[in-house]
Amino acid sequence: MSKKSTRSTKLKADPDAVTQQQVACATKKVFYISEKLLDAKDAKDDQRLCLEHFYHPGKARPALFVTLREHAIMEVLEYAEPRRSWLMNSEVCSNGRTYMTTPIDATLLALHHLRRHCSQRAMSLDNISVDEPDASTHRLLTKFVRADGLKCVADVKKSGDLIFYKYNSDRALAWLALKTRQVVLVLKAKQVHCGLGAKSENYVRSEKLVEENDVNEMDYMRMACDYVGRYLDADLHAELTRYLHIPSEIQALVEEKANTQKRKSQQDAAGANSKKIKLGNGKEDAASQLRKSSLLDNDDIKEESNKSPSTPVPLKERSMSAKEKALAKGAKGSKSISSFFKVK
Amino acid sequence: MEDMEIKEENESVIDEKPVDINKIGSLKSLGPFIAAHENSQNTVYLSDVPAICKEQPCMLGVDEAGRGPVLGPMVYGISYCPLESKSVLVELGCADSKQLTEEKRDIIFNDLNTLEYANSCIGWAVEIISPNVISSSMYRRTKCSLNEISMDSAMGLIQHAIDAGVNIAEVYVDTVGPPEKYQEKLLKRFPNFKITVAKKADSTYPIVSAASICAKVTRDHALKVWQFPEGLLIKDNAFGSGYPGDPVTKRFLTEHIDLVFGFPRLVRFSWSTAENALADKAFEMEFDEPDSEKPKYAGTKLTKFFKGTTKTGEVKREECRFFKQCHLDNVTDF
Amino acid sequence: MSITLDFDVKQLANKRQLELHYLPAKINGDGECANVDKYFNNYTREASDYGTGVLTNALRGYPLLGKREAVPKGYKGVVLQETDPHQAQRQLRLTGTFEEFTYWNYDKVPSKGDGYQQAMTMLQVAEALAAPIGEAELEEELKRQQQAKKENL
After folding, report:
1. For the whole model, what pTM was predicted?
2. Tell me, what's the ipTM?
3. Which residues of B are annotated binding-site positions for a divalent metal cation?
């Protein structure tokens, strides 16, 4: 059809113009820059911010940081929703990311190097980076890592003008644990959703809150540790998780479910007792009543009383716990976890 | 009796200011009324309700104009009159509106509003459904079909008539789709009316014909007086019928493309004709998938708990869940 | 290899303010877009049914719900542009600054649940992680640690 032919002729004419524009504008970037880096009062002449790469332990490769001369460093993060773009005045910008400079304790970045080089012996910062292929480690350790941070994670020895550091695992873990707790506080204050599942604004703020308080506490701790962990080598992250006694999520889920089962069956037993009295005159014998109810949830009993006695509800419940056991052993499968742990 | 009616009518005319942009008293005032209302939003107009329509049981017809075209509003129209005034409709010439020329429709519309024998017993109303509203309804996350938009408009207009005091007894609706479902839906909402939904009702029932004329004349005028907030000036607003086959419409679509925004909002973006016209000619644009095409959320996947490994066998590190959820990451390529 | 942000802090104050829209679509193109006012801004309406300050508009027929949004507290919004990415010494120049912009969602009222809002919360979480740990606090934690170790022996 003619439509096709017009399309292709248009295609020949357009692309050049478009690509040229793209080259010029695709390079525009939206930044949120911390005012701490922009304090005009102590701005000296020729003071420029710099973007540079340093090794990021969580990413296991270099990532972008912003530095101000030789004294301030911040991490650069990008907010990159899959479908976003910017209109700026009368320009369209396909790069819909928002870059932001976020504060970072450079000690976290130093930990990787300390553990690698100074676990067995004390070294000066100068010496640590001597073997590194590029100068960034040297620059990081000598310019941006602060002594009062280092002494939290390492033993410090002074000899004349020289300072030597030896990685101290106990101190590092204690320090990281405290950092994690600081993070917990802010996660709570900001009501960040830390449990499993789709994030939802209202989910946590319900009557469930009280009942699930303990679980929440652990969810916050796990999320905080998860967050701190993204700045650590993988093995150190694992150490910190152990140190804070954070069970893995699947473990926690299984235990939680087991506890609710236990609680419920206790309640059921109590419920059955009262029922026994009530049903004492009834036709059904108390023993079978008790036997049945110990297998049932409270809700199921209510349902049961409205249905014929042969309703297979309890069977469903039992088969679920069998699945759980299988799951705890690390059962394979792609079935969604929530189908095993539906809130009853 | 008749004399009294005339008096009432006259009084109400005197009450109105001579030039009222919000009142359509003749064909001449239709254009200015439409032009005075924002064309990116829907506009409803109700004529005065003749007193007799509040007393006598009435029939009410529903029809639409401009459902198919890629350009301009879709207009829903209703008209109503006492059951016994059917002859007036015939006298006016309300027959199959598709058989009428544009000129003839204009004359009937004008007569309907200006001639006393007609406007004393026939009332009407229209809803101009903006192409902007049509596109954004059909492109919602939960899609709203043109049928739903149509039914909502039709039922809305009937409700307006009820609220204005029209004593409705019978409702006749023209439909292009299957009548049964439509009829069922209308009966559910208006259980007290005798409701007839039929194909080509506008050639069968004069009251539907009258509604059809009101809708069609309004749609034609809406296009004539269309002012582009985009600042386009088209001589005589000649953008053709709006049907995909019309070469004038085709040319309009190819000549007025903005790389980012696509078309002016006269165009229904949700029409495949419009979508196709933009392909290759404007920047490609991608939104979230509509809800119906997204895989349903089925809870956290069990596989999530088993750490993935890369091809070389090392354990892949999962990014902190919170970071992932809110699309945050470090910058490694810049 | 470092990239210089080639602007003086003092420049920021008198740099022109940019009018920004954060659009909920991937757009495969860059460059001049002269019709923003006539094709887009012209159609922005307040939609109080959705809440105070909620705006409506549409992009290519897709319904948008938006809100004026301020740059997070303690931050300055800037637009930077790379002069020439192929140069040995890469540089970003300052195009303009902004304190507010219009945030748009596709057919969803902007809320705290949006990824963007959650990401902004992160700024404060980062603050908490970066905050230094006091000497006394650390010693206390170390004591607890030693205690726990003994108990486990």
Report:
1. 0.81
2. 0.95
3. 63-64, 174
